[in-house]
Design a protein that fits this description.
With 349 residues, the chain is mainly α. Helix content is 72%, strand content 2%. The protein is built from 14 helices and 2 strands. The protein has a two-stranded antiparallel sheet. The protein starts with a helix and ends with a helix.
Length: 349
């Protein structure tokens, strides 16, 4: 048994390095068109969002339906600071993360004492409030008119006598920018997962009463989780603003939260590698439906019916996701057995 563990570990490392190598050479493949590169950039963006949301339901066992609110906060933070102050993208990234984390604390501190459906409703309400604010506060966000004129990210090498390189459109430069951001987010999440903070979150997720008896301050750790999750979502939004170069409140509706949640559930709650797969599958499916639905005479919004069907099937067949971690899989099995017991007793009576 012990002899097989190093072999499995080495195999996992080789597999991950192979995937990274393919990701690096992908833009230079002859079959990759501009549209395919656009889809790949979109997949990487949603990977960041899925990694950020995974902190709440995956690491802490809470249902967050308002994640898109922090995504929108990060996007408009980036857009407004660019339009009005001309700040560099590299300065905006930490500012957007801090702003998102701040709003995460302001939302989480008073509401994280709630559990279950009550907490989910509060987070859903927050996301709707963000959309209403972005729509109605025209003096700041231009509301339904959108926020145009956002400059793309750039690398200023003028101090070396070289020109300024603008990272715009669906180009390999933009692809490598978001790929680097995904790798950085992945590294941070892996370090958190194996740290004392991550172990405290897992203890809270598995059994809050046992966590309290071990001296874990549940509220403090949940607020930290909410801040980190919100900060990562805001970073994803900051990239989107500089990539799209125009923002609209309609970009941050509730369905975006639902889509990212589908990615986390599909890949596996708490599995940082699984949510990457979930993001790739869901974005790829969305692009496939974009082609198929018009051929069937169906509106584009009907794709959410397919997303809902996927969620129902996952809850029925693989509630812990395609790549579940052992703790979550054990919890799902225990819950399934618990649900069956009353039915069995009723039949016996």
């Amino acid at each position: 048994m012990n002899a097989s563990n190093p072999t499995k570990k080495n195999t996992d490392i080789i597999l991950k390095l192979g995937i990274l190598f393919l990701a690096v050479i992908l833009p230079f493949a002859p079959f990759v068109s501009e549209y395919m590169l656009h889809v790949c950039i979109l997949i990487l963006l949603y990977m960041i969002l899925a990694l950020g949301l995974n902190v709440i339901p995956g690491f802490n066992g809470l249902l967050d339906l308002g994640f898109v609110g922090f995504y929108g906060i990060g996007a408009y933070t980036s857009g407004l600071l660019t339009v009005h102050f001309g700040l560099s993208y590299w300065v905006i990234i930490p500012l957007a993360a801090l702003n998102g984390a701040l709003w995460g604390v302001l939302l989480g501190a008073p509401t994280l004492r709630l559990t279950g459906d009550y907490f989910a409703i509060v987070t859903f309400g927050f996301s709707e409030l963000v959309v209403l604010f972005l729509t109605n506060e025209i003096w700041l966000t231009r509301g339904p008119l959108g926020l145009p004129g956002i400059e793309p990210a750039s690398i200023d090498l003028s101090w070396l006598g070289l020109p300024v390189f603008y990272l715009e459109g669906d180009t390999p430069e933009v692809y490598f920018l978001i790929l680097g951001m995904v790798l950085a987010t992945l590294f941070i999440m892996h370090r958190i997962e194996t740290s004392r903070l991550g172990r405290a979150w897992f203890a809270i997720r598995d059994d809050e009463l046992a966590a309290v008896s071990c001296g874990i301050n549940i509220l403090n750790y949940k607020v930290i989780a909410f801040a980190i999750s919100a900060g990562v979502g805001a970073v994803g939004g900051s990239f989107y603003a500089r990539w799209a170069m125009v923002l609209s409140p309609s970009d941050f509706v509730f369905w975006e939260s639902f889509l990212v949640l589908c990615m986390v559930v599909l890949g596996g709650l708490g599995n940082i590698w699984g949510v990457l797969v979930g993001a790739a599958v869901m974005v790829g499916l969305g692009e496939l439906l974009r082609v198929i639905l018009p051929m069937l005479g169906l509106p584009m919004n009907s794709r959410f019916l397919f997303y809902g069907l996927i969620m129902v099937l996952m809850m029925r067949l693989k509630p812990a996701g395609l790549f579940p971690i052992p703790a979550v899989a054990a919890q799902m099995r225990a819950a399934k057995v618990q649900r069956r017991k009353p039915a069995t007793k009723a039949v016996e009576q």
